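Supplementary notes for students who missed Thursday's class. We covered one full example, reproduced here. Read the sequence, then the structure, then the short commentary at the end.
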Amino acid sequence: MPPPDSATVKAMFGRIARRYDLANRLLSGGLDRSWRRRLVAGVEKAGVDAVLDLACGSGDVAFALSRALRPGCRVVGADFSPPMLFEAERKRSAARLAEPTFVLGDALNLPFPDGSFQAVTLAFGLRNMPSRERCLGEIRRVLRPGGRLFVLEFSQPSPWVRPGYTFYLGRLLPVIAGAITGDRPAYEYLNRTISEFPGAEELAREIRAAGYDPVTHERMTFGIVALHEGVKSPEDGPIVRT
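Structure (token representation):
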């Protein structure tokens, strides 16, 4: 499958934004919450004071980071879909929270100066990028030297799980998601991006090739999901956009 088209992906997420959270809970059997907790725990352990949650969607990771990190830590959520950001802002207003803040931003051309953040999180968004290499480069640009990248993404499961998982992705999930969101084609597309996405080891090599070292990864739920962590070298100078 060719790289996704930004306009198509933006329109698709706009259509499913209103019921996106409900779909995530039901389709993952609630496991998405435990995956996010592992991501947030990694950021918390790093002891950072400025975090960007990229492709933040309706804000679940950004809200979790705001709750978990120490007072005074700045958390910013960025997404290129206005309807998704509307949902995030609606939740923030309903909870009467000052943080996190949300901004409209394209992951391939981030609206932040070099070295703005100590950590960047990217949960289930990398596989939808037209260019993973450019996205990883932009993240590296906005990270401070020694800053950390956390990528939580679907991966390729263990061989004994794969047949059942493939059946669920291809046959059951689009039907269930279509009933929840009214947009079955969106989830047929998303399922293709999952099945064709690199495994954990291959993605670790891509992140390392993008200028992060060391790079580690942790497989979760029989390899269905992997959490990658990469470090921008403390000696890194300014990164020039290409």
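Commentary. The longest helix spans residues 162-181. The longest strand covers residues 143-154. If anything here is unclear, bring it to office hours.
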